[in-house]
Amino acid sequence: MDRIIYTSMTGANAAAQRQSVLAHNLANAGTNGFRAEMSTFRSVPLQGSGAGTRVFALEATSGYVDTPGPTQRTGRALDAMAMGRAWFAVQGLDGQEAYTRNGVFEVSPEGQLVNSNGQAVLSDGGGPIDIPPESTITLGSDGTLTAKTGNQLPVAVGRVKLATPPEDAALVRGNDGLFRTGDGDPLPNDENARLLSGAIEGSNVNSVETMVGMIAAARQFETQMRLLQTAETNDKTASQLLSMNG
User: Which part of the chain is the Flagellar hook protein FlgE/F/G-like D1 domain (predicted)?
Assistant: First the structure.
């Protein structure tokens, strides 16, 4: 009896976790540069006497869908889309270098280049980028920022860092939504990486596919709950038969 209980209990838990991941993805279908989260599960046997035939579902290391989102043309000078597998480098709240595909940039009141979340955009040297006051900024395809103030000649004020992770070492998403390397070390600047200015990358979440997945997860959860109810009914029936035979 307890085998079916373990099966249905862990199955329901896995379905609930999957629905949570899908709901998070759907909520970020409109977030610039968002990467859809994936979740996988594996069976793990229970430890202890008499538990060798019982298993429970354990969430394995979750990853993300590393495919680009749709290109959205804006024409805005400080909007940028990283091309290929490149990422923008920003400074997280912990002061460490992190990575994002969100290329909506602006100048903070302190005169630094930041993204739409207020995180400092880092230069190819690893530091913040200062923008001259009352200047017009243009962004080149290699990440070079050029400032023109009044009638003065344009001058380069920095270069946005574009980093490309190795093929065999995917980035890890943090609780703040930013990505970092597995060992926490910053990636080098990729001299060959390019960006598209005047455009931003949309979320790569497929809303329709995600909603279908949520419905399937909800049905799976209901199935596991019915299985628990069936186990309870069978237990009551068996008890009644034993009492009659006694």
Answer: 84-147
Q: 231 with 1: CB under 8 angstroms?
A: yes
Tell me: do 176 and 238 sit in the same domain: no
**Same domain membership, residue 59 and residue 14:** yes
Claim to verify: residue 75 and residue 132 sit in the same structural domain: yes
The label of the residue with tokens 């005169």 reads: 111
- Asked if residue 190 and residue 170 are part of one domain, the reply reads yes
DSSP string, 60-96: ----B------EEE---TTBEEE-TT-EEEEE-TTSS
Using DSSP, state whether 147 is helix, strand or coil.
strand
Most confidently predicted of 37-41, 53-57, 205-209, 233-237: 205-209
Instruction: Give every CB contact of residue 44 below 8 A, 6+ residues apart in sequence.
Output: 55, 56, 57, 58
Query: Do residues 61 and 86 both lie within one domain?
Result: no
pTM above 0.85, yes or no: no
Tokens linked to 139:
């962004």
| 83 and 132 co-located in one domain | yes
- Closest to 159 (Cα-Cα) out of 110, 124, 118, 133: 124
- Looking at the fold, whether 75 and 197 belong to one and the same domain comes out as yes
The residues that bridge with 106 in the sheet, in sequence order, are 114
pLDDT tens per residue across span 51-61: 555 666 666 65
Q: 26 is in which domain, residue-wise?
A: 2-65+205-245
Say if residue 147 is in the same domain as residue 51: no
